[in-house]
Design a protein that fits this description.
Layout (H helix, E strand, L loop, with lengths): L4 H6 L6 H10 L12 H9 L4 H16 L5 H18 L26 H23 L6 H8 L4 H19 L3 H10 L3 H5 L2 H6 L7 H27 L3 H12 L6 H11 L2 H21 L1
Helix pairs in contact: 2-13, 3-4, 3-15, 4-15, 5-6, 5-14, 5-15, 6-8, 6-12, 7-12, 8-13, 8-14, 8-15
């Protein structure tokens, strides 16, 4: 039997490299991030009460919604899981023993070879696409609800907002440079179906992407990216995000980095689960909010 959303929440790590990376990047985001891993505490925060009976009622309803096939909470998590597994492959790491690079805590890991810019852009577009599709699944909307997604981004907060900051920094600014958002459309225009098929996430997501065939799916991803870019550009400008600023924030939590920015991006892709981690937390919060409203 598959785990419920709240069970997934409670199995998230409280301290590992993923958590440290998210804590570092969260220092750049107003409101920060507290790494919620307790279902009861999240329920208590949402309902504004510590009444055990009420918390139990909300949890029971949340578990019912989580397991209902007609609801999209489980499918939303599967999307985050898909891009998370894919990013480990997309990191493009060659691990050579006995060579040092980057983080002192990984003395024997280096030879980090980042993926090409086009493949990196396609990987980013798949993550944005997964975000869009997860949004529609959780909210019961058609998969091509681009305008609704674009409007909702402005209301992202907490773990969802930190996930977007990590996406921009780890998958955009660090591997593609500070002009990553401006370059993205051109890079995606140069991508072909072969690039899509290099990414494991595409195979796992394809059935949920509207349209038939690689060309239709790439068109969907580009439209999703267009909506996301409209918000992301303002977000970057508002917070003054840059590759250097991201590295400084990460060094405050995971230690000094002595390699190139794109190597750090590849390292994070290979060894962290930031997208799935915050995805579980965000889906859990939306689930709890709905369950509480129905009690």
């Amino acid at each position: 039997m598959s785990r419920t959303v709240l069970e997934r929440l409670e199995r998230l790590p409280r301290r590992d490299l993923t958590v440290l990376a998210l804590k570092g990047i969260s220092t750049l985001v107003p409101g920060g991030w507290s790494n919620p891993t307790s279902a009861d505490q999240m329920i208590s925060e949402v309902i504004g009460s510590q009444d055990p009976q009420l918390i139990r009622q909300v949890r029971i309803r949340a578990d019912q919604l989580s397991g209902a096939r007609a609801e999209g909470y489980g499918r939303a998590l599967s999307l985050y899981d898909a891009v998370n597994r894919s990013q480990h492959a997309t990191g493009g790491l060659r691990l050579l023993a006995n060579v040092t690079a980057g983080l002192p805590l990984l003395k024997r890991i280096s030879g980090i070879t980042p993926p090409g810019d086009t493949l990196q852009a396609v990987d980013l577009s798949l993550k944005v696409g997964a975000e869009l599709l997860a949004f529609t699944q959780v909210n019961g909307l058609p998969g091509d609800s681009f305008a609704d997604f674009g409007a909702a981004l402005a209301d992202y907060a907490g773990e969802a907002r930190v996930r977007m900051a990590a996406l921009i920094c780890f998958d955009g600014l660090l591997p593609l440079g500070d002009q990553a958002l401006q370059r993205l459309d051109g890079l995606l225009g140069a991508a072909g179906s072969g690039d899509l098929h290099k990414l494991p996430a595409y195979g796992r997501m394809a059935a949920l992407i509207p349209g038939r065939g690689d060309a239709a799916h790439m068109s969907f991803l580009r439209r999703g990216v267009d909506q996301w870019l409209g918000w992301a550009g303002g977000f970057v400008g508002q917070l003054g995000l840059s590759g250097q600023k991201a590295v400084a924030a990460l060094e405050g939590s995971i230690g000094p980095w002595q390699g190139r920015f794109d190597q750090l991006a590849a390292f994070l892709d290979a060894f962290t689960d930031t997208y799935a981690h915050t995805g579980v937390q965000a889906v859990a919060r939306r689930l709890v909010e709905r369950a509480a409203a129905e009690i």
